Amino acid sequence: MNGQSGLHNFLKRLTARSVLSDREKRSILQLPNRVAQLQPNQDFVDLGEKVDWACYVVEGLVGRFDQNSSGDRQITALHIPGDMPNLHSVIQPTATSALQALSQCMILEIPHSALRVLTTRHPAIAEAFWRDTMVDAMIVAQWVVNVGRRNAQSRIAHLLCEMACRYNAPFVGRSVEFVLPMTQVHLADALGLTPVHVSRTLKSLAEHGITMKHHIVRIGAWETLVEIGDFDRDYLQDGIRSGKQ
Amino acid sequence: MNGQSGLHNFLKRLTARSVLSDREKRSILQLPNRVAQLQPNQDFVDLGEKVDWACYVVEGLVGRFDQNSSGDRQITALHIPGDMPNLHSVIQPTATSALQALSQCMILEIPHSALRVLTTRHPAIAEAFWRDTMVDAMIVAQWVVNVGRRNAQSRIAHLLCEMACRYNAPFVGRSVEFVLPMTQVHLADALGLTPVHVSRTLKSLAEHGITMKHHIVRIGAWETLVEIGDFDRDYLQDGIRSGKQ
DNA sequence: CGGGCCGTTGACACAAATCAATGTCCGTGG
DNA sequence: CCACGGACATTGATTTGTGTCAACGGCCCG
After folding, report:
1. Cβ contacts of residue A211 below 8 Å, gap of 6+?
2. If we measure between CA atoms, which residue out of B69, B74, B75, B98 comes closest to residue A226?
3. B136/A141 CB distance under 8 A
4. CA B152/CA B188 separation, integer angstroms
């Protein structure tokens, strides 16, 4: 996969949520970009760093990290292929969170200057970008609910539901299976738990036919997971798979 | 205070973070708007409701609410005068969170149609709006860290720090005092705690010279609160009061 | 005077953290 | 080819922060 086909996917993502003209589509495909390969647990934007590019995830899983003073990490967002983890940096170039590759990743770095040209020339693109960052923000708001008001089992289940939907993981009857390239430590960091407790809780989820081994999530019965995770997909704003539940 | 002076404050807020031309400023002041008065604990946008206006807080405190299936509420954002709690509804009209007045409030309802005219005509205003929603999003991300990785005392302290900064509460020597029109129940809902535990924890904070009584927060020594709350103001993107810490 | 709403306090229960040991897998180098 | 180290995962024993339940007090307002 090269940078150009990456941009095609970027366009696909934007048009899934926003309407763009042919001219606007073409200008997006012409965006300059630099491909970067990242190793698992590699930080590529540090806290407080000023960047002059926004990135697009082609392959892999990216986490947005924050931490408290005692060094406990908290993931505040997960980004899968198709996402732009720091599109907001166009507007706010100084990072208030770090970015890290959780798995092996391929990303595209797109200069702010080029993105700014697009947004000033094409209001529809500006709106598409705004909308994209808004969806991310709505997901973060749900994470507050998840971490603030659900127990460990429910939290994990909710995250698995969210990721299954975002990956658009296919059903086989009532069951779902997908690759989630993050470790139990990452899960703990995302859910405000300890790795030890994640391990224990995953064991308890296994009794409900829900397992996660070697980065493969297997969900025996989707509705069971939805029930445990207290999941309502509306906030994802995708419309995909609607009617399935 | 009337609707017109409310718009002046709106403009002030926008120009504090973004640069606008005189023509753009004038068009903002000419925005049509409807004044609404709200009582404490009055819901004014319900979950899933479709609105055709965004609101601006002139006076009072507004909370964005979510809840899990067992009815436990979680506040995912607090909005003070100058904020637009649902500016994002311009882009995403169906609410994924409810809005509630926590105290007596006065808000301005501004039609989406009018806001859309502004954003398409003036890219700078579109950018200012985008930036405003981004700042909100960054605050939410910090709430995830707060709820996920801090204990009750630290959580409350962090919230008090945040609100002191956002209200731009004045110093008197090392101490700070400001009005925060929310109850302990609201605090609990914002921090993922129970009201009982909030009460106990506030008592323990009182030993550090930090009190909250009758909606008045008194902070004996700002640096003590910052220390307890593990607070780093960078995420607020305000620049105001910089150099104070 | 009475009834909400809000806050406080105490006894107790429990979910999750902590501490610590052990196991597994894998890549690397001797 | 085996030994080693490191990242990841599992398990048990114990502690602890916070939730739960319940009673009570203050205050405002009708």
Report:
1. A202, A205, A217, A218
2. B69
3. no
4. 10
How many Cβ atoms are within 10 Å of A133's Cβ, its own excluded? 20
Q: Which of A74, A123, A145 sits opposite B123 (nearest CB)?
A: A123
CB contact under 8 A, A234 and B48: yes
Q: Which tens digits make up the pLDDT trace of B6-60?
A: 788 888 888 888 889 999 999 999 999 999 999 999 999 999 999 999 999 999 9
Closest by CA position to B53, among listed B82, B98, B88 = B88
Q: What is the phi/psi pair of residue B175, to 5°?
A: -100, 160
Distance CA A111, CA A17 (A): 23
Beta bridge partners of B36: B107
Bridge partners (DSSP) listed for residue A64: A77, A99
Q: Write out the two tokens for A160.
A: 């698995």
Residue with tokens 């001219």: A23
Residue pLDDT, tens place only, B108-136: 999 999 999 999 999 999 999 999 999 99
Residue B3 host element (H or E): helix B3-17
Q: Which chain B residue's Cα is nearest to A18?
A: B91
How far apart are alpha carbons A198 and A180 in whole angstroms?
15
Nearest protein residue to the C1' atom of D9, measured from CA: A199
For residue B240, how many other CB atoms are within 10 A of its CB?
11
Under a CB-based contact definition with an 8 Å cutoff, are residues B96 and A138 in contact? yes
DSSP letters, B46-99, are -TT-B-SEEEEEEES-EEEEEE-TT--EEEEEEE-TT--TTGGGGT--B-SSEE
Phi-psi label, residue B88: left if phi above 0, alpha if psi -120 to 50, beta otherwise: alpha
Nearest by CB to B134, which of A77, A88, A143? A88
Q: What pTM was computed for the model? A: 0.94
B197-242 residue pLDDT tens? 999 999 999 999 999 999 999 999 999 999 999 999 889 887 533 2
Chain B residue with the nearest C-alpha to that of A230: B69
Asked if B93 CB < 7 A from strand C, the reply is no
Query: Rounded to an integer, what distance in angstroms lies between the CA atom of residue A231 and that of residue A75?
Result: 20
Q: With contacts defined as CB-CB under 8 Å, which chain A residues touch B127?
A: 91, 119, 126
Residue A224 DSSP code: H
Which backbone phi and psi does B157 adopt, to 5 degrees? -60, -40
With CA atoms as reference, report the closest residue to A63 among A94, A105, A33. A105
Please state whether strand C lies within 7 Å of residue B208 at its CB atom: no
